[in-house]
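Troubleshooting log. The previous run stalled partway through. Resubmitting the same four chains, unchanged.
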Amino acid sequence: MARAGLTPQRLTQAGAELADEVGFEQVTVSALARHFDVKVASLYSHVKNSHDLKTRIALLALEEMADCAAEALAGRSGKDALTAFANVYRDYARAHPGRYAAAQLRLDPETAAASAGVRHAQMTRAILRGYDLAESEQTHAVRLLGGTFHGYVSLELSGGFDHSAPPAAVSWTRIVDALDALLRNWPAAPAAPAPSAAPSAPAQNDREI
Amino acid sequence: MARAGLTPQRLTQAGAELADEVGFEQVTVSALARHFDVKVASLYSHVKNSHDLKTRIALLALEEMADCAAEALAGRSGKDALTAFANVYRDYARAHPGRYAAAQLRLDPETAAASAGVRHAQMTRAILRGYDLAESEQTHAVRLLGGTFHGYVSLELSGGFDHSAPPAAVSWTRIVDALDALLRNWPAAPAAPAPSAAPSAPAQNDREI
DNA sequence: GTAAGTTGCCTAAAACCTGTAGGCAAATGA
DNA sequence: TCATTTGCCTACAGGTTTTAGGCAACTTAC
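Second attempt completed without errors. Output:
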């Protein structure tokens, strides 16, 4: 019988496309086998298991996002860079919701460390060079940007902004403006507490619900 | 034979607990049946199907989060309210990762409109009363806060901050500080573009990757 | 060109999850 | 007590995951 020409790369690519069409959750070894018109068991020579397949799709998505971001950042700095970076993030998620969901897959530490997620974080840090932040504040700012971009896009994709005005794109622009303003006027860190002093701001809510 | 005393409520509650133990993804009708030491088919008299079960867990989580937030907000305003609200959000997610994941389930519009998610959004808006924002900017600010809180917590839970200093709790505090500063110095909206003018800032990246 | 070795896809089968249909027994209530 | 409702059951059909082992199609070496 003719061979289908399966490879891990082709499976990953097809899996990514399938994810964008029907959602990352629906990407299954069976569905992929149907797509290649091949028996399910055949795929197990190319990917270890279902989780391996999903991980490969996640890594592909992270790679693509980092590539887009790198291209968008080239030659830009300051607010221009921040805006370009933010838009790449949102545009990618909207164009490729399945891959974007894949990129959110929790990777085991070694895989994550070897992924393009690291490049992404480095680029976020590079953007901050256009702002005047103390070294000790940079990680906080990186996490703020990462969290905000991811959170906003994630809420938008899940339909959270669908039924209220204004359109999500308008808020997005204003939010990037606001983050730019925030980075230019980053609040001073509070004085470090004396070593033996009680914590200055106890958690306000740590009870079990 | 003795009856197990199943009800939709008990199933939902047990499902929520199971989600916190093994992850929302792993909550299945079968697993729940095992928990009650009952045959799988028996559950289908109480919940319509697997999706119905998950939706009920999501609604429970949204309800609990809104209750916690309401309690934390009582008697507070300004930065105090912002901090309390933010901490409720993060603390709930850390204490109940499975329920938190459930709360992210995409609900159909009617279900979402009837859920406690609405209350949550109203509380966010209430917090903004402590700041001096133009009416037209409030929705943007609500979306910024929602996105940032959700995004940060989501990244933290998925382990994104595990392998870098400082601890996630430290950045969290600084980020809430920064958001407070931002809300107190919200940047002016740019002048509205003339009706027939070209868009002032074309998207920087809308190509297909 | 052909024999040997490798690779690729196959069949078969076990285990688990979802969901439907119909049945019997326990609870309820007149 | 008898009829009805309710709750959990058995049985079954269909789908996904994963392993084991087999044969045919490629590749390579002589």
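Takeaways: Chain A has ten helices and no strands. Residues 50-73 of chain A form the longest helix (24 residues).
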